[in-house]
Amino acid sequence: MTSEDWKHYPQTWYAITLDNYLKKGNILSGQLGGLAYVVYRDHAGSLHAMDAFCPHMGAHLQSGKVSESGIVCGLHGCTVEPDRPLSSSTHTPCNLKNRAWFCVARFGLIWLHPPVADGVMPPLPFASLPENNLIWTHATRRIHADWRAMICNGFDIAHMKTVHQREVIGEPQFTVLPENALRMDYQTRVLPKGGWSSRVMQKLSGGRIVLSHTCCGSAICVNSQVGAFNTVGIFALLPQNSPDTPPELRHTQAFAAIAVPKTVKWAKLQLYLARCLYLAFLRKDFDVVEKMRMRLDGVNDVGVRAIAAFQATLPEIDGGTSI
Ligand code: FES
Ligand SMILES: [Fe+2]
């Protein structure tokens, strides 16, 4: 297996921004796998997404205005709406349709999925997570690293000792979930010398942390049980460069959504503590993956091999004609 088997833009859900960053009537644009998109929030608060170029003469819809039924193109004033099975308006010369993308808000993040051949919405990321039973906090940061190296890091057993001063107990277990995600279940023990965050974890855990990491495309959901404390951390990665950019020059926008159950005592305090611990943990990872040129051939780590094999099964985003 080589790093080439791991697609730079797999066909999957991507978190593109924090939910509260996109206000009513605003448009956000970007590209995934060479396909340009616009996402907008209508005046009633619903999210929509579609190809970015106006079907009339190709103006970028970023410069348009959100109307009741779509985006009014800035160049000649035609209304362009996502073409979904349930679209209501008729196709007239100045009421146009663009290929729709899938777009949902979950866990305080906006998730986008490129169009698929059969038009059926793919399973949502981490669908079984009881979003409404949890309270959430969020963070975002741009990292000078290839997103693949960051996902790989989340399954790398050997680095747990060198980077996080944790010892893995026993063998991790791997399960491929029906929604096309890979889960790794394992346990760790905190070793001394990990700084303040390790000392806190050692106190809270009583020596043993039970973890599961679930990877869905370019996002990982971490469930951790530290003594009596249960936390959830979703870490979603948005690649920033074209696939021909050398890995060590790539950047990634990282989004974190961290949660604890609503019903626990001092929920807000627990959430604050969980946030501090997760972000301290991640900072150690960022330090070692920045500017990395990932190699997978000959690597024997059981977690790295499992995640690389899983990622190699994901197809690349279909190249469209919109760019
Ligand atoms: S290019 Fe959009 S209406 Fe003409
Ligand atoms: Fe790590």
From TrEMBL:
**Keywords associated with the record:** 2Fe-2S, Iron, Iron-sulfur, Metal-binding, Oxidoreductase
User: Which Pfam families does the entry mention?
Assistant: Rieske
State the InterPro entries in the record. Cholesterol_7-desaturase (IPR050584), Rieske_2Fe-2S (IPR017941), Rieske_2Fe-2S_sf (IPR036922)
Q: Does the keyword Oxidoreductase apply?
A: yes
Tell me the GO molecular function terms: 2 iron, 2 sulfur cluster binding; metal ion binding; oxidoreductase activity
Q: Which residues form the Rieske domain?
A: 13-112
What Enzyme Commission number(s) appear in the record? Answer: 1.17.1.-
Determine the domain of life of the protein's source. Bacteria
Q: What is this protein called?
A: 3-ketosteroid-9-alpha-hydroxylase oxygenase subunit
This chain's source organism reads: Alysiella crassa
